[in-house]
Write a structure and sequence with these properties.
By secondary structure, this protein is an alpha/beta fold. It contains 22 helices and 20 strands. Bound molecules: adenosine-5'-diphosphate (ADP) and magnesium ion.
């Protein structure tokens, strides 16, 4: 549906090949791109300052009649043109540098409006002009109004870009209106053409605010529609597996657990099971703070899948965590007569072949592993449920590859990195979200203390005290980003020093990313049994590790870790009823690092920590390189505009419910408006 908006920018008279090339550098190729190239900021130049009231250092807009002109060559490179302006209150010089073409345009007697900074002056004040307009220009774009400023590229000035955009706005009315009438009416949003005109050249601040709101809302609405429509299409074309209702096995699993589920766990499990029993493929995100008890919920869902005759798989981001889940699942599932397989990169060849063969034959009902699971050679006989733990650690493609192993399997992704709800909606708008709010009974917030390195002994004293009382300790090494090898070395040194000098009477263990599997399993098992009392660790323990008797953690070089990461690390303790402690050692050098440590000492709820982290760092860094597929909006900011996200989500849902059957037309609109091919 190529229309005028698809015309290249050269379609405009003001744009020749050179300017088209410059615009191209800004990502602006068509008239549509140009209209959607929004100003970065604005200057209010509506009020003219009387020339008799200029104050040095201020940036002003003023106007007057040209009563004199002079030109001087200051140096080989610098030529200045000055116009003396007069109004009823006084006189001022307006000064331009190296603007030869102006000589032709400025004439005595002419009225001019200029914007710029007022120089320090003794006699007649002087304005260093950044923008100006002469009376009689067709429209005022640069002064005497709220003036837009665009991101530029070398060779393209604000003046030129404003003129080009202004020309393009003649075609604003060709923009199709994608917001349904009743939604515009409900929020009193202006139409698309009006919004485009107002965001580029706002007549006043209210119009600007409305235009921005409308355009930001539209981005979010269209994005949500795209996500929902995609999911609907997916679900309507291909039915998934309708898992059988719970039977004896599911009942026994819950009955034989050493604890009963919390109401929150029961609620999310019900949500999951309802999805599983429906004939549509489940796509659900399970959120819950560190230690909230997601694993057991996943296990219950896996038992259900197995009970109905399917296989279930769980993928974890580290070998350490996969091995822990494997051990834990065997404890829970062996009494039910269910075997659990492990598949990671460090399995011996023979073990691996056996697991692969039994997985393909369907004789292993439950398999846990790392991304080794997504390799080509891994086949299931009838995969019915895929669980992805700590899913933010995986890329989109890795998740997708695991799904390919089954025919429309149900999918449950879990995360302990609490994502604020609005961001979850923006990121995973095509997933349903279940939240385990609250922790299992008896948990107390981890007492978190920030200590300078000079007071390290206090942290060690706490370790001693806890161990004496039957607890256990983690000591986390400072982060070495450069290489895993260096990190492992640093950990070895720390462990050696601690066991020699600080805790000669205790058993100090060590885990890091370079240990062989047997060694790692041996150490973790010893720590779990209590044979190792102090575990020195790198960030390999950051996610998922669950040893409930651990009650104290010392984090070295805490200022180097991100807030979310510190919260995750701290989550390794405080996993049972006993009071736990976390000592953050470090000398934060930046204000931000200080703020991070302060937030963590005062804040125990992962969602609050994550919100704070987002505020401190912005969504890009928050997810860093770990999170792929964060949508980029022009105006909307999913963090700042959280209420708008929720409204857009709700509106998109009800709109889709009403227009179901007309989805293709909708998709055309979506495709035409946003290049959402990436999602
Ligand atoms: P996470 O949500 O961080 O993955 P886990 O699933 O590892 O948390 O659970 C943390 C700890 O809490 C585990 O030791 C688990 O056995 C325990 N746990 C989970 N649910 C309950 C419950 N309802 N009552 C008591 N302990 C529980
Ligand atoms: Mg977990």
């Amino acid at each position: 549906m190529a229309g005028v908006l698809d015309q290249p920018v050269q379609y405009l008279k003001a744009v020749g090949p050179r300017r088209a090339g410059l615009l191209g550098k800004l990502g602006v190729h068509t008239l549509r791109d140009l209209l959607l190239y929004f100003p970065r900021h604005y200057e209010d130049r509506r009020i003219l300052r009387p020339l008799g009231q200029l104050v040095p250092g201020e940036t002003v807009t003023a106007g007057g009649t040209v009563v004199g002109l002079e030109e001087r060559q200051l140096s080989a490179r610098l030529r200045v043109l000055r116009a003396c302006l007069e109004d009823t209150s006084g006189r001022a010089w307006a000064t331009w540098f190296n603007q030869d073409y102006l000589k032709q345009r400025l004439r005595p007697g002419q009225t001019v409006v200029v914007s710029g900074r007022v120089k320090a002056f003794l006699g007649i004040p002087e304005i260093l002009v950044t923008d100006f307009e002469t009376a009689g220009e067709a429209e005022n774009l640069h002064t005497g109004r709220i003036v837009p400023f665009y991101p530029l590229t070398a060779g393209l000035s604000q003046r030129i870009l404003r003129q080009i955009v202004f020309r393009a706005l003649e075609y604003a009315s060709s923009f199709p209106e994608v917001l349904p009438e009743e939604i515009r009416a409900r929020y009193r949003l202006p139409g698309i053409a009006q919004s485009l005109r107002d965001i580029h050249f706002p007549p006043d601040k209210t119009a600007l605010r409305r235009a921005r709101l409308r355009l930001a809302y539209e981005e979010l609405f269209v994005f949500q529609l795209a996500l929902l429509a995609r999911r609907r299409r997916w679900q309507s074309r291909q039915k998934g597996i309708a898992h059988a209702p719970d039977g004896e096995l599911s009942r026994r699993f819950l009955a034989e657990l050493p604890f009963s589920l919390t109401p929150a766990q029961e609620r999310v499990l019900r949500e999951i099971k309802t999805d599983m029993e429906s004939p549509w493929p489940m796509a659900r995100l399970l959120q819950g703070d560190v230690g909230a008890g997601k694993t057991v919920v996943a296990a219950a869902a896996m038992v259900k899948a197995v009970e109905g005759g399917y296989q279930a798989v769980l993928m974890a981001p580290t070998e350490l965590l996969a091995e822990q889940h494997w051990a834990g699942f065997r404890r829970w599932l062996a009494p039910l007569g269910l075997e659990v397989g492990l598949l990671t990169g460090s399995l011996a060849k023979k073990e691996k072949e056996e697991v692969l063969a039994r997985t393909a034959a369907g004789s292993l009902p439950v398999v846990v592993g790392t991304h080794a699971l997504i390799q080509e050679e891994v086949r299931f006989r009838h995969l019915g449920l895929v669980v992805i733990d700590e899913q933010h650690r995986f890329g989109v493609t890795q998740r997708a590859s695991l799904l390919q192993k089954g025919w429309q399997p149900d999918v449950l992704v879990m995360t302990a990195t609490p994502i604020p709800r609005t961001l979850a909606l923006t990121l995973y708008g095509d997933l349903e979200v279940s939240v385990i709010d609250g922790l299992p009974p008896g948990r107390q917030p981890v007492i978190t203390v920030w200590l300078p390195e000079s007071r390290r002994q206090e942290a060690y004293a706490a370790v001693r005290r806890e161990v004496a009382g039957g607890g256990q300790a983690y000591v986390v090494c400072p982060l070495v980003e450069e290489s895993e090898a260096l990190q492992a070395e640093a950990a070895q040194e720390l462990a050696a020093r601690l066991s020699r000098e600080v805790f000669p009477d205790l058993t100090v263990g060590l885990v890091h990313g370079r240990l062989k599997r047997e060694e790692r399993e041996r150490v973790m098992e010893a720590f779990r049994r209590g044979a190792v009392q102090v575990l020195v660790a790198t960030t390999v323990i950051e996610v998922g590790v669950d040893v409930p008797q651990a009650t104290v953690m010392v984090i070295e070089g805490a200022e180097r870790f991100g807030l979310a990461q510190l919260h995750q690390l701290r989550g390794r303790v405080g996993r049972a009823a006993r009071q736990a402690y976390c000592y953050l050692l470090g000398r934060p050098r930046s204000a931000q690092a200080r703020e991070r440590l302060r937030i963590l000492s005062n804040c125990h709820d992962g969602f609050a920590v994550a919100e704070a982290d987002l505020r401190l760092r912005g969504p890009g860094d928050f997810f860093g390189t770990r999170q792929h597929g964060l949508p980029q909006f022009r105006l909307a900011d999913p963090v700042r505009d959280s209420r708008l996200v929720l409204a857009a989500r709700r509106d998109a849902q009800s709109y889709l419910a009403r227009t179901y059957g007309r989805v293709p037309a909708l998709e055309n609109l979506i495709a035409e408006r946003n290049n959402l091919t990436k999602i």
